[in-house]
């Protein structure tokens, strides 16, 4: 997880991000996983949005990965593991029991239920191997040529363009207006990135493709976020004094992280890219675009 807001020093029902961090730390402890809560120590310049932080941080985590680590699960502070009885390996096995996962998969994502045509980066898995590193390296390097870094959630649009070049993000007039997504790099070496990721479909408005394993409250009102986090804490018996007893362990899992220096793309280069990607497509054509992607992937909506 990553969070700039301060963690509470005692049990507080108002801070859902603190409750979620405690919930996820408890899950990691139960299964013997390493849990890290990154605390960015510096602000980037105004041309880079904070939502980009997760990209270089995860890239650094992959480079310093433990040899025994198979997968990394990233979650925004609005999400928590809901089913503590299922291990990550069991969950992934069940997720792909009907259709084997592509051996080249470096990451597992889902489509954003709110931003149609965009790949969500609120919750996702990254495989701690060469495939995962290639995916993260491409995502990170694409930003150095993209002035969209100044837009919150632009890293989501760039990720979408990396995986589906010209098919979704850059061909949606709405997405272009919101995120100003430029070209992004579409190749790693000589291989196209599409085979490096699996993108799942969400059922409903709150990212239900993770089933009952992960609860994502990002679309819920503030009061509902707090309510759901508190309910989960009660289910696992970590409210009040029990919460306070485990705070030292959570504090030990926090890691100060110095945000790396970022370089902005050249204005002239950006203008050239914008001319190439500003293809006006009517909104009614987006559904056909997504069906075309599914057909190319050998998948269907059913």
Automatic annotation (TrEMBL):
Pfam families named in the record: Glyco_transf_34
Keywords: Glycosyltransferase, Transferase
GO CC, any one term: Golgi membrane
Transmembrane segments: none
GO BP annotation list: protein N-linked glycosylation
A single GO molecular function term of this UniProt record: glycosyltransferase activity
Homology family: Belongs to the glycosyltransferase 34 family.
Name assigned to this protein: Hemoglobin and hemoglobin-haptoglobin-binding protein 3
Native species: Cladocopium goreaui
């Amino acid at each position: 997880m990553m969070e700039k807001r301060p963690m509470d020093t005692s049990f507080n029902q108002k801070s859902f991000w603190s409750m979620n961090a405690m919930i996820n730390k408890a899950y990691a402890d139960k299964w013997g996983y390493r849990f890290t809560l990154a605390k960015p120590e510096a602000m980037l310049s105004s041309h880079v949005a904070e939502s980009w932080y997760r990209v270089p941080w995860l890239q650094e985590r992959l480079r310093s990965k433990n040899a025994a680590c198979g997968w990394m699960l990233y979650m925004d502070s609005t999400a928590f593991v809901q089913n503590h009885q299922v291990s990550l390996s069991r969950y992934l096995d069940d997720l792909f029991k009907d259709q084997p996962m592509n051996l080249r998969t470096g990451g597992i994502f889902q489509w954003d239920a709110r931003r149609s045509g965009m790949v969500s980066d609120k919750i996702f898995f990254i495989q701690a191997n060469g495939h995962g590193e290639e995916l993260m390296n491409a995502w990170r390097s694409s930003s150095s040529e993209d002035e969209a870094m100044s837009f919150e959630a632009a890293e989501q649009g760039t990720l979408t363009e990396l995986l589906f070049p010209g098919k979704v993000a850059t061909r949606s007039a709405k997405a272009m207006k919101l995120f100003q997504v430029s070209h992004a790099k579409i190749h790693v070496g000589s291989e196209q990135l599409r085979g490096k990721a699996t993108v799942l479909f969400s059922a409903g408005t709150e990212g239900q493709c993770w089933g009952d394993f992960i609860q994502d409250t990002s679309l819920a009102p503030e009061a509902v976020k707090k309510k759901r986090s508190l309910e989960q804490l009660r289910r696992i018996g970590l409210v009040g004094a029990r919460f306070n007893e485990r705070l030292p362990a959570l504090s030990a899992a926090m890691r100060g992280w110095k945000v790396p220096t970022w370089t902005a793309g050249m204005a002239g280069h950006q203008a050239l890219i914008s001319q190439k990607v500003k293809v006006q497509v009517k909104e009614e054509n987006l559904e056909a675009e997504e069906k075309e992607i599914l057909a190319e992937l050998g998948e269907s909506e059913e």
